[in-house]
Amino acid sequence: MKRLALILALVLATPVLAVQPDEVLDDPALEARAREISTGLRCPVCRNENIDDSNAGVSRDLRLLVRERLVAGDSDAAVVEAVVARYGEFVLLQPDARGANLVLWLAAPALLLLAGGVAFVSIRRRSTAPDEALSEDEEARLKDLLDR
Amino acid sequence: MLTELGHFSLILGFTVAIVQMVVPMIGAQKGWRGWMAVAEPAAAAQFLCTGFAFAALMVAFVTSDFSLSLVVDNSHSAKPLIYRISGVWGNHEGSMLLWLLILSGFGAAAAWFGGDLPERLRARVLSVQASVGVAFFAFILFTSNPFARLPVPPFDGQDLNPLLQDPGLAFHPPFLYLGYVGLSMSFSFAVAALIEGRVDAAWARWVRPWTLAAWMFLTVGIALGSWWAYYELGWGGFWFWDPVENASFMPWLFATALLHSAVVTEKREALKSWTVLLAIIAFGFSLLGTFIVRSGVLTSVHAFANDPERGVFILAILFVFTGGALTLYAARAHAMEAKGVFGLVSRESALVANNVLLAVSSLVVFVGTLWPLLAEMAFGRVLSVGAPFFDAAFTPFFIALALILPPGALLGWKRATGAKLARQLVPAAVLAAALAVLGYAIGSGRSALGPLGLALGGWVIGGAMVDMWMRSGRGTVAARLGRLARLPRADWGRGLAHGGLGVTFIGIAGLLSWQQEDIRVADIGDSWSLGGYEMTLDDVTQGQGPNYLTTMAQMTVRDGGDVVAVLYPEKRIYPVAGMPTTEAGIDGGLWRDLYLVIGDPQDAGGWAVRSHVKPMAAWIWAGAILMALGGLLSLTDRRLRVAAGAKRQAATPPVAAE
Predict the structure, then answer these.
(1) Alpha-carbon distance B122 to B193, whole Å?
(2) Which of these, B43, B81, B506, B581, is most buried using a 10 Å CB contact count?
(3) What is the separation of C-alpha B366 from the centre of its chain, rounded to a whole number of angstroms?
(4) d(CA A129, CA A116)
């Protein structure tokens, strides 16, 4: 867990713990936006961690960068864009829905439509078919056998 | 010496498994009873051999035998006993041996308690089970030998990853593996049935207890892991959509689907081929999970094995078993003609919807987990898929699942009508609406998540209660209550498991919508307030544990002057591994957890301190415990005990022998 981050943190400085008190902005509205943005950005040197939770030094830099941009008056989207421009789409924890990424976003809804459709059609076809189920006597005997 | 005996015993187990794989299968094909009968003693012998090997490794860890390279890499003489024991599976080789132990344990359980299974089916099941065993014996012996010796033993070990030195994580892998590997039984039954060409109600009834047991262990394992992440990682999250978490979540979703579709196969002889397919897929995803975790192919927080040779080996196992089973399925599935006819509005249809939604939601997890790998290989795009994606893409399907759960559970088999159902569900709807209003009233207005989650939880819990009440029949309240108490355990299990899901929903919604946080620099003696509580940093002391150094804070939490809790959050450094860990100070409660973390000393004096109030946090795991309890209750139901193939006089449930 966070081994790389921790090693880095140990090597670079004393370990820091996620968001530090000195980073927190005075304006609660801006700070809330900063936190929101931070949870969507990946720490570049960690394994599956956002910069808000990360202990790595680079995450701290990114958190500070996000806050700097926000204080300067950037919109949320502009802040994210600035970070992506510097580190690539790798830092986006929620990939965009452009190009090949459409597969990622649409695979499940497509399967839902497909499976739902197949199930609906086959159940409807089957439900109108003649009933070939066991007769009452057979059912009773089966139940008897199973419950023994 | 014992180590060498353990190694030898493992090789012996390998040969026994080969015999168990080949001989009974031929016997079953030819109808030779003597050859079929080999399966049982072989399964027992295989289990004993693996058990001896595992015990030998455990002795090496407990006695800190540093002539074993595995012990050197993952243990230390100063480590407390429990972590010397859990160190056995806190590494690649040992955890694979645990995998194998559990696999052969399930096989032996099927041999010992499957007395009433038809002879041929049992021989084939044990043979298929042994074939999985053969693959993993080979994997361990040829790529991951836990018994490798060092020519020059060092003076002491390098310690276990400190994050793993924790009670929650000591027991997380065994439970997870019991679940992962338990699904191998469903797989073996499915493949045996395909070879046999026969799937009927009785088959479904034999499969169910094994699936139920696996599902229950998987539930406990996942909950333990999530709980560990909550208190150990220091920021109080409970689920990170980490590839390794996903690896355990996908088999869980499929096992859940399998449990439900097996019900339809058992009661109505419908969905047969789908149930068989699910059994194959569920175990396929267990193998995929093993591959993801063991190969480290997806960079993830848990990967402690990064050897490509091993990855390729497991990938081969994955392809051979799922590919082989699916081929067999393609050849034989048409033989399994569905019998039960049912209408569009019926419990069968609801269970089909349940299966579709579970399969689709696991596809979200599957695609999301593998997408970074695919995108990089196929499109050269280096990207990440993290929690925000899964939250957005996964949640809608689970909301839909929660919505259809109560009506689905109440619908009659075959053909049902909507009107009666709507009447029955009024109480659940009222509960849901009441909770939504409550959620809206407390709501900080941050999002619709809180009220929505509470409403869903109320709907599911209310639905489970209505379901139980409807099963109590007609008559006076007293008579119905009496009957309620005498309902079969499987009914109670179902109610508990469904209710547990609702409880978890409420916990997640409460935690995510109403948690409060404070980050500050505090001097000793400082106080601050958060969420109606007043917190004081009383003291910070330096101390020493058995194998770590600790910075421990004492913090008092007061509510209107009364002391609620005195907590001792810690920051530990494990000098041997050179790693710090955080130990949050947590005061758990029914309605909220108080969660305190001590950070670093600041240059200008004082300490960085984080405090959280986390509403309903305990409900998340309470729900999981309820689900697992529900599984346990069902498992002890007489019908399933018989169904597992147990002889009628056998008093113990089949899997208790694990």
Answers:
(1) 10
(2) B43
(3) 16
(4) 20
A129·B392 Cβ contact <8 A: no
pLDDT for position B298 = 67
**Which H or E element spans position A29?**
helix A28-38
Please give the pLDDT value at position B96: 93
ipTM attached to this prediction? 0.82
pLDDT tens digits for range B16-69: 999 999 999 999 999 999 999 999 999 999 999 999 999 999 999 999 999 999
pLDDT at A133: 58
Asked whether the beta carbons of B498 and B460 are under 8 A apart, the reply is yes
Position with higher pLDDT, B114 vs A74: A74
Rounded CA-CA distance A98/A93 in Å is 15
pLDDT for A93 beyond 80: yes
Measured in angstroms, the CA of B132 and the nearest CA of chain A are apart by 30
Q: Please list every residue in chain A whose beta carbon sits closer than 8 Å to the beta carbon of residue B642.
A: 148
Chain A contact for B575, CB < 8 A? no
For residues B48 and B88, the answer to whether their CB atoms sit within 8 Å is no
Full DSSP string of B480-529: HHHHHHHS-HHHHHHHHHHHHHHHHHHHHHHHHHH-EEEEEEE-TT-EEE
Cβ distance B534 to B557 under 8 Å? Answer: yes
B367·A14 Cβ contact <8 A: no
Tens of pLDDT, residues B529-573: 998 899 999 999 999 988 899 999 999 999 988 999 999 999 998
| Residue A103 vs residue B336, higher pLDDT | A103
Q: For the whole model, what pTM was predicted? A: 0.90
- Rounded to 10 degrees, the C-alpha dihedral B617/B623/B626/B632 comes to -110
pLDDT band at B653 (very low <50, low <70, confident <90, very high): very low
Residue B502 exposure: Cα atoms within 13 Å on the Cβ side: 26
Look-up: residue for tokens 């994050």? B163
Using the beta-carbon criterion (under 8 Å), do A112 and B356 form an inter-chain contact?
yes
Task: Check A116 against B356: CB less than 8 A apart.
Answer: yes
Query: With an 8 Å Cβ cutoff, are B384 and A17 in contact?
Result: no
The token pair at A19 is 């968001």
CB pair distance less than 8 Å for A42 and B384: yes
Q: What single letter denotes the amino acid at residue A88?
A: G
Please give the structure tokens belonging to residue B493: 């299990």
Nearest to B600 among A16, A99, A123 (CB): A16
Question: What's at B490, amino acid-wise?
Answer: A
CA torsion angle for B323, B325, B327, B331 (degrees, to 10)? -170
Partner-chain residue, chosen from A49, A103, A115, that has the shortest CB–CB distance to B360: A115
Cβ within 8 Å, pair A21-B519: yes
Residue A130: the pLDDT is 56
Rg (CA), chain B: 26
B340 in A contact zone (CB under 8 Å): yes
Say yes or no: B155 contacts chain A, CB-CB below 8 A: no
Q: For residue range B461-508, what is the model confidence (pLDDT) as tens digits?
A: 999 999 999 888 888 888 888 888 888 888 899 999 999 999 999 999
Output the furthest CA–CA distance in chain A (Å, rounded): 80
| DSSP states of B350-363 | HHHHHHHHHHHHHH
pLDDT, mean of residues B353-375: 93
Which chain A residues touch B392 with a CB distance below 8 Å?
Answer: 94
Q: Which two tokens stand for residue B414?
A: 């075959």
Alpha carbon distance B294, B304 (integer Å): 7
With CA atoms as reference, report the closest residue to B276 among B226, B333, B314.
B333
Q: How confident is the model at residue B284 (pLDDT cuts 50, 70, 90)?
A: very high
CA–CA gap between residue A46 and residue A35 (Å, rounded): 18
Q: How far is CA B516 from the centre of its chain?
A: 29
pLDDT tens-place string over residues B187-246: 999 999 999 888 888 888 888 899 999 999 999 999 999 998 888 877 778 898 988 889
